[in-house]
Amino acid sequence: QVQLVESGGGLVQAGGSLRLSCAASGRTFSNYAMGWFRRAPWKEREFVAYISWSGGSIFYINSVRGRFTISRDNARNTVHLQMNSLKPEDTAVYYCAATHKDYTGSISNTRAYDYWGQGTQVTVSS
């Protein structure tokens, strides 16, 4: 089992920044690739960003590319999502998730991930 705990959410004005963190425990963190997803009110959970176990492969949804940065620290068992130039449409509950590093399917699909955190609320006011 892998336990994931997100933190860093909050209320911010449009144009502001937040840094989300996800702390992992349980199994060897470097055996897992990590993803960030979000769920806005009345919408499906959507993929936001992905980072491979080594950090060598990174992907973003188009709407956040250039504004969000995903990173990881395998020594500290953490993954981060730096969010800049936030927009009201970024308002959502943000979740981190883990998938085994050997997974070869679509990493933007929620079904790829075996472990999920409880989520952290991000609210961007206009």
The best one-word shape is globular
Averaged pLDDT: 96
Number of strands: 11
Low-confidence region ranges: none
Largest sheet: 7 strands, mixed
Strand percentage lies at: over 45%
Distance between the termini: 40 Å
Could you state the order of secondary-structure elements as H and E? Answer: EEEEEEEEEEE
Radius of gyration, in Å, reads 13 Å
Helix content: under 10%
Number of helices: 0
Secondary-structure content class: mainly beta
Provide a short characterization of the protein structure.
This protein has 126 residues and is an all-beta fold.
Structural descriptors:
mainly beta, 11 strands
In words, what does this structure look like?
With 126 residues, this protein is mostly beta strands. It has no helices and 11 strands. The chain has strands at residues 3-7, 10-13, 18-25, 32-39, 46-51, 58-60, 68-73, 78-83, 92-100, 115-116, 120-125. Strands 2, 4, 5, 6, 9, 10 and 11 form a 7-stranded mixed β-sheet that branches. Strands 1-3-8-7 form a 4-stranded antiparallel β-sheet, with no helix packed on it. A hairpin with a 4-residue loop joins β7 (68-73) and β8 (78-83). The chain is globular.
